[in-house]
């Protein structure tokens, strides 16, 4: 039951926001009593923390599945971004990450620290792969580009309250990041991916 509560809470927090969802809402969605939830979680904050841990595993499991497809480095980045867009399709305009930062700053700090470490590893792997694919330049200072990109992405998430605007800016950041690294062949692949975005 504990796992089911964590999963349902995570879905609701992503869909409707961390602030607006109450223990009553979760109990109502699951057709259980609020008392049952409190049996496992003494307050909402603990449930928020557990659900962010659960979402972290889900997101990273999905990213691992995408990496196993062995797409080229640029297609891979666009595929991961598409996955995030689908996952963070909020019913309210307020970004879940922005809400987490505003209402649960300590949990947000833990989440961000973990994400920066893991994302830095992926960004690095992606740049190495792109160089091998001849889509990114060989003269890149990989550490610097990793730092540039995660600073850009996390800054957007931290400071943009609208989920729709956040996703628009993330796509712009991905294009900016890719153009800065791309070889002429990489630019062709980038244009193809951007064209696919316009069709969707």
UniProtKB/TrEMBL annotation:
PANTHER family: ACREF/ENVCD OPERON REPRESSOR-RELATED, ACREF_ENVCD OPERON REPRESSOR-RELATED. Pfam families: TetR_N (PF00440). It comes from the Bacteria. Gene3D superfamilies: Tetracycline Repressor, domain 2. Keywords: DNA-binding. Residues 1-59 form the HTH tetR-type domain. This is TetR/AcrR family transcriptional regulator. Coiled coil: none annotated. It comes from Flavobacterium muglaense. SUPFAM superfamilies: Homeodomain-like (SSF46689). The keyword DNA-binding applies. Residues 22-41 bind DNA. GO terms for molecular function: DNA binding. The keyword DNA-binding applies.
């Amino acid at each position: 039951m504990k796992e089911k509560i964590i999963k349902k809470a995570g879905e609701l927090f992503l869909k409707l926001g961390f602030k607006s969802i109450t223990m009553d809402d979760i109990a109502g969605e699951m057709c259980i009593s609020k008392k049952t939830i409190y049996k496992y979680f003494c307050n909402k904050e603990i449930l928020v923390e557990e659900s962010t841990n659960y979402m972290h595993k889900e997101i990273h499991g999905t990213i691992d599945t995408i990496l196993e497809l062995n797409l080229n480095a640029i297609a891979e980045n666009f595929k991961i971004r598409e996955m995030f867009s689908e996952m963070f399709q909020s019913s309210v305009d307020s970004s879940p990450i922005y809400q987490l930062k505003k209402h649960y700053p300590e949990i947000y700090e833990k989440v961000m620290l973990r994400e920066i470490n893991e994302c830095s590893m992926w960004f690095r792997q992606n740049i190495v792969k792109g160089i091998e694919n001849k889509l990114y330049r060989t003269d890149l200072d990989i550490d610097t580009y990793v730092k540039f990109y995660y600073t850009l992405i996390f800054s957007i998430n931290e400071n943009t309250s609208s989920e729709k605007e956040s996703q628009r800016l993330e796509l712009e950041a991905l294009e900016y990041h890719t153009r800065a690294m791309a070889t002429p062949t990489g630019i062709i692949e980038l244009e193809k991916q951007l064209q696919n975005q316009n069709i969707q």
